[in-house]
Amino acid sequence: MGIGTMPNNLKSLISNLQSLSFPFVMSRVRLYASEAIVIRHSNYGEADRILTIMTPELGKLRVIAKGVRKITSRKAGHVELFTRVRLLLARGRTFDIISQAETVEAYRPLREDLLRGSYAHYLSELIDAFAQEGSEDSALYDLLANGLDWVSTAPDPALAARYFELRLLTITGYRPQLFKCARTGEAVNVDAATNAGSPLSVAFSPIEGGILSPPVARLARDTFSVPVGVLRLLRVLQTQPFDSIKTLDVSPVAHAQAEQTMRRYLTFVLERTLRSTYFLRQLVSEDQLNSKPETS
Q1: Beta strand spans in the chain (E)
Q2: What is the pTM of this model?
Q3: What residues does 88 pair with on adjacent strands?
Q4: Are 148 and 120 in contact (CB under 8 A)?
Q5: What is residue 68's predicted lDDT score, i.e. its pLDDT?
Q6: CB-based contacts of 135: which residues, under 8 Å, 6+ apart?
Q7: How far is CA 226 from CA 20, 195, 262, 277, in A?
Q8: What is the predicted pLDDT for the residue at 198?
């Protein structure tokens, strides 16, 4: 974001610095402005906090918010987790320092609803895993901003999370092949196979990066089965805009199978399991149990 597009208060601060009689101030402090989303934080010292932020121009950064844990801090409410914020930063030796912060979008439902907030943790951890430090990535930033909005407002945050995963994999070059055999390129027509009385599942190979045709699957050892109904769901999520899928009615069983499919593929890609998935799966199970109608 250039100086011309900054909020007036940020432009005023920079103008005041430039008007000082010491011309070395700007070169020494080296202020810069950026929009950012807070994806992780940790306490530092007695009153400071280290923030991991995602930015469009500089990718992932670790910065310090000095004094933000003090009750009197003006910045505290603007640099909470999952907040989209405009920042003015000064370059520092170890961490760049937040000089000023202004909230763009607070995504309030993420702090008011435990389940939605847990999905926000998961989305942020995914971005943290895929993003590169100091490398421009406006596509990932825009996806995170959209993803936080999806899980905070959509009727079904689990469906929004699956949609986010597929978009993330596409952007980062790991788009799973869901329509053709990942090894041979042969089209896999699940509708024709189902009508012909074939098995109601398709083999998925993380190593190959997608589904396999039956002849190839018989020779592969690294596959797991994806129910045809779940494959159809993932195909829709991969190819349709969010507004057209956000009201889909997905059964708890299909949700669990889709989540497992994506988790196994993401674990292969990242070579580890994200910490947030353990708590999220437990929370979803409890939510489904509590939502079951009582029987007399």
Answers
A1: 31-44, 48-55, 59-65, 84-90, 96-105, 201-205, 210-212, 224-227
A2: 0.85
A3: 33, 100
A4: yes
A5: 87
A6: 58, 59, 60
A7: 65, 17, 10, 20
A8: 57
Residue 21 located in a structural domain = yes
Same-domain status, 164 and 64: no
Query: Are 45 and 74 in the same domain?
Result: yes
User: 245-275, pLDDT tens digit by residue?
Assistant: 999 999 999 999 999 999 999 999 999 999 9
Residue 291: pLDDT band (50, 70, 90) is low
Strongest mean pLDDT among 9-23, 179-193, 203-217: 203-217
Among the candidates 106, 125, 150, a domain finishes at 106
- The pLDDT tens digits for 70-98 are 888 888 889 999 999 999 999 988 899 99
What is the C-alpha end-to-end distance of the chain, expressed in Å? Answer: 61
Q: Identify the H or E element spanning 214.
A: helix 214-217
For residue 110, CA distances in Å to 46, 172, 215, 287 come to: 27, 26, 46, 16
Q: What is the pLDDT of residue 231?
A: 97
Q: Are 82 and 120 a contacting pair, CB within 8 Å?
A: yes
User: What domain range includes position 147?
Assistant: 111-291
Whether residues 73 and 171 share a domain: the answer is no
Work out whether the CA dihedral 42, 48, 54, 60 comes out positive or negative: negative
Residues, the chain, total? Answer: 296
Residues with Cβ within 8 Å of residue 119, at least 6 apart in sequence? 151, 157, 158, 160, 161, 280
CA angle, corner 113, sides to 109 and 118, nearest 5? Answer: 100
242 and 163 in contact (C-beta within 8 Å)?
yes
Residues 170 and 90 both lie in one domain:
no
Structure tokens at 96: 């760049």
